[in-house]
Structure formats: C-alpha cells, structure tokens
C-alpha cells in the first residue's frame, strides 16, 4: 500500500469538508482501482480516521485522529512553503536535535519537525522542557532567511507574535508575551520559544525555531518544578483545543509575518510585539547570571534587546535574563 496515496486520499476527504466523495471519483482522480481506494480507506480507518461509506454516495470523513502526522496537517495548510516538508516522529529526544541534523542536509526553508513527545526537550538557559506525549505541540521549524547574523534575534519576536495570533484565532484566548518570548495566560506560561542558529563565514545557514506549546495538558501532566508557573490552553479554556489547527495557524502567521519583515523591515513586527507585551512600561526584576537589576522596562530595541531604566536614571540593555514582574 502506497502511504503517499493513502495520505493524499485523506487530504482529499478533508478538503471535501464533510461532503461524500464517490469511490469511482477517487479511483479516477488517483488513477487506481475502486478496490485499491477501498484498501486505502480501510488503512485510514485503522489509523483512527472515521470514514463512513454510504451506498451510491461515497465516502465521508467524519473524524480524524488527534495526531500531528503530515497526513493530518498538510492537506488544509494555507502556507506556500512552511510545513510543506514535514518530519513527524512519535517520540524523540528533542525536535531541535533532529532539526539541526536536517538543516545540515540542506532541507528547504520552512521545513518542520514535529514529535508527539520529547524525552529530553530543552528550554532556554539549558533548562529542560516538559513534553508529555500527545498533549502539546513540540515543533522545530528550519528557516533560511537571507539576513545579517545580528538580526537573527528578531526572529524570536516574529515567532512569538505568530504563536499569539494563532492561539487567538484557534481558541479565542488572549495570551500575552513576557520578554523575550514567554507566552502567558493569566501570568502562567503556556508556550516557550527557543531560537538556535547555524552559521558560517557566509552568514546564517539556518535558524531553528523551537516552539513548545502546552495545548491539552491537565495539571498532573506537569512536573512539580513547573506546576506553579505553567498552564495549558485546555486548562484556561475549559475544553480541549485542536493541535492540528494550531500548527497550521502558527505556520501560516509565521510565513506571513516573515514575509512582512523581509519586505518592510522590523518596525511592523515590533509594533505587534509591543501590543502583546506585558513587560513594557512595567516595573520588573531581571535576574541574570551575575547580577539582578530592578527598574522599569522601557522598550525593546530593534535587535530585541530589553531596555530597563534603574532608579538612578541609567538605561541598561538586557540580552538574556529571567524577568519577574514587580507589582
Ligand atoms: C523556553 O525555555 O521557554 C523555550 C522552550 C522551547 C521548547 C521547544 S519544544 C520544541 C523544541 N524542542 C526542544 O527541545 N525545545 C523546543
């Protein structure tokens, strides 16, 4: 059984949006026999796709499994490039590791790695990232922007506004962003973003944008270390959210905002980021490796550097820190 045909057939039924498609029509479109169509349908049903078959009308898709495999994501993707090459794993150490390996094999801009679970998910500052099986979105996206190395951090902010837009669109929730890229719901973190880089003397070879989105966890799915500071979209909304729609929407906005950024520069993205930010204009405590600063978070620079004004009137540029909001 050709898996590519099976996946395309699933896509064809998804695009039919609940309308029946006859076996003969599918056979003609795919250039296979009706018996072969039936075998692909059986294969899909075994994978968890709910497909009803009504005599003289055809096959209707009534439900799809909650999986992030290419067959479930790609048919309804609204992007031109992002997600068109998609590596799906049921488990891996970290999608960042796989993405770094793929990036060296010259995979195209917008290649996506998705895994149902990570056994060694990593966060910023060498922290670990809880990645329970099937509950969240553990995704790394390989981008190959033609920009100077020093502009790379701006992509973390592009990714943050893309994720916030996607969460708003798919769930109706209104998250905000804590500098640099924590996405929060009522002050608790529902998404983290980790941007890594491959570069050489010619500049950026690949940006690896890792997104960890807590979608459908219950409180007990979080480890004791993060229980008090983490949340999921399901916990906030009170009902499960569609991981598939979220992935498609994140990729859509990431592609759109990247195009705006390349055409028009960082100003439009910065404006959106500031609109979603809980940090700007507020008193904060910034914990860095060697010191802690307290002051007002005044702005971010075009490089994404946070500017904190301390009580002595000095302005400090913060490149990397844990930010605590002071009330
Ligand atoms: C943070 O510390 O806030 C960033 C967390 C990033 C987690 C994501 S999950 C997908 C990708 N793979 C990883 O190992 N980390 C990132």
From TrEMBL:
<keyword id="KW-0436">Ligase</keyword>
<dbReference type="InterPro" id="IPR045864">
    <property type="entry name" value="aa-tRNA-synth_II/BPL/LPL"/>
</dbReference>
<dbReference type="InterPro" id="IPR036388">
    <property type="entry name" value="WH-like_DNA-bd_sf"/>
</dbReference>
<dbReference type="InterPro" id="IPR036390">
    <property type="entry name" value="WH_DNA-bd_sf"/>
</dbReference>
<comment type="similarity">
    <text>Belongs to the biotin--protein ligase family.</text>
</comment>
<dbReference type="Pfam" id="PF02237">
    <property type="entry name" value="BPL_C"/>
</dbReference>
<feature type="binding site">
    <location>
        <begin position="122"/>
        <end position="124"/>
    </location>
    <ligand>
        <name>biotin</name>
    </ligand>
</feature>
<dbReference type="GO" id="GO:0004077">
    <property type="term" value="F:biotin--[biotin carboxyl-carrier protein] ligase activity"/>
</dbReference>
<protein>
    <recommendedName>
        <fullName>Bifunctional ligase/repressor BirA</fullName>
        <ecNumber>6.3.4.15</ecNumber>
    </recommendedName>
</protein>
<dbReference type="Pfam" id="PF08279">
    <property type="entry name" value="HTH_11"/>
</dbReference>
<feature type="binding site">
    <location>
        <position position="189"/>
    </location>
    <ligand>
        <name>biotin</name>
    </ligand>
</feature>
<dbReference type="InterPro" id="IPR004408">
    <property type="entry name" value="Biotin_CoA_COase_ligase"/>
</dbReference>
<keyword id="KW-0067">ATP-binding</keyword>
<comment type="function">
    <text>Acts both as a biotin--[acetyl-CoA-carboxylase] ligase and a repressor.</text>
</comment>
<keyword id="KW-0547">Nucleotide-binding</keyword>
<dbReference type="Pfam" id="PF03099">
    <property type="entry name" value="BPL_LplA_LipB"/>
</dbReference>
<keyword id="KW-0092">Biotin</keyword>
<dbReference type="InterPro" id="IPR030855">
    <property type="entry name" value="Bifunct_BirA"/>
</dbReference>
<keyword id="KW-0678">Repressor</keyword>
<dbReference type="InterPro" id="IPR008988">
    <property type="entry name" value="Transcriptional_repressor_C"/>
</dbReference>
<dbReference type="InterPro" id="IPR003142">
    <property type="entry name" value="BPL_C"/>
</dbReference>
<feature type="domain" description="BPL/LPL catalytic">
    <location>
        <begin position="71"/>
        <end position="262"/>
    </location>
</feature>
<keyword id="KW-0238">DNA-binding</keyword>
<feature type="DNA-binding region" description="H-T-H motif">
    <location>
        <begin position="23"/>
        <end position="42"/>
    </location>
</feature>
<feature type="binding site">
    <location>
        <position position="118"/>
    </location>
    <ligand>
        <name>biotin</name>
    </ligand>
</feature>
<keyword id="KW-0804">Transcription</keyword>
<dbReference type="InterPro" id="IPR013196">
    <property type="entry name" value="HTH_11"/>
</dbReference>
<keyword id="KW-0805">Transcription regulation</keyword>
<dbReference type="InterPro" id="IPR004143">
    <property type="entry name" value="BPL_LPL_catalytic"/>
</dbReference>
